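To: structure desk
From: M.T.
Subject: fold request, one chain
Message: Could you run this one when you get a chance? Sequence is below, nothing fancy, just the single chain.
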Amino acid sequence: MKSEDIARLAGVSRSTVSRVINNYPNVPEKTRAKVLKIIEEYNYEPNTSARILAGKSNNTIGLFVISVSENDGPSKIYQSTYYSTFINTVVDAANTIGYYVLVHTIYCDKDYSKISQSFMQKRISGGILVGNEKDLDTIKKITKMGYPIGIVDYDFGEIERNNLNNSRLIVVNSSDFDGTVEALNHLINLGHKDIGIITGRMGTYSGKERYRAYEYTLEENNIDINPDFILKGEFLKKNTYDEVKRLINSKKLPTALFACNDDMAIAAMEVFMKEGVRVPEDISIIGFDDIPMASHIKPALSTVNVPVYDMVTQVTEALISNIEQGTKAFSSFTYPVKFVDRDTCAKKRSR
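Reply: Done. Structure tokens follow.
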């Protein structure tokens, strides 16, 4: 069925049907109701290409999952609890509002072209970036094109330095610094002073903030940082396995270890278990994110809860609202986090 058929059945002009479909205000309510009744009765779907040519939203957003440093194959990104939760939440939130989601994965530098191409080809009306390596040049290009884009985990300082706070950018972060400080103070209150860290990727906002909070908290408590206890996990399990094995082989362990995400904390626990190092009797461990597995493993992982569902819902709804309303302003949101004490922390014991 075509729009002219709808017009004939409703007894109106084709242009009136177009105005109803595109939600123009200058249509009498009685006429609008008549056209909508026919559309519903015949399950009419407006032609998306025609809407795009008319400059209207195509009711589709893009989700770009970026993991250039994850080189163990595409399936890895979907095996990640964090990414799978993110993708599912975006799709659910968008579908609830009547929007579709095109998911793209970025595994190498040349894949970044997928992002700008999707906008230039008008396949999407807005986009969300999630991942560890958000390319600044790509973000600049999209914002200059005038499209709205949502980003989770991005440095406000970098946005200001590049004048991106005058664009249609939507940024959602969590208060990682405060959460890390709370977690480390918990370890210090248990008597720990030899506290190590498994770092995230330092090119990310979350990685930098969590490490900055580590340095700050130890300095505030007059605790020296031991360089041997800084493990470069890069948010990857494989790196964590190698770094923890190296730490064990050094024959000198910290009494507590803070991991910048739960995947690395759990990877560390696996290595310690294989090597006969008991958690928390021999070493206390805290993670970050509070993924579902954290509460189900034995011992249950103490961690920092990040409200990922709320954050992702916020960025998705804000993006679609921006598309619908034509909002031109920059917006940002920061969500609080909370330390969750479970079974992987204990008072420091003399060795």
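Reply (cont.): The first strand starts at residue 60 and ends at 66. Let me know if you need anything else for the meeting.
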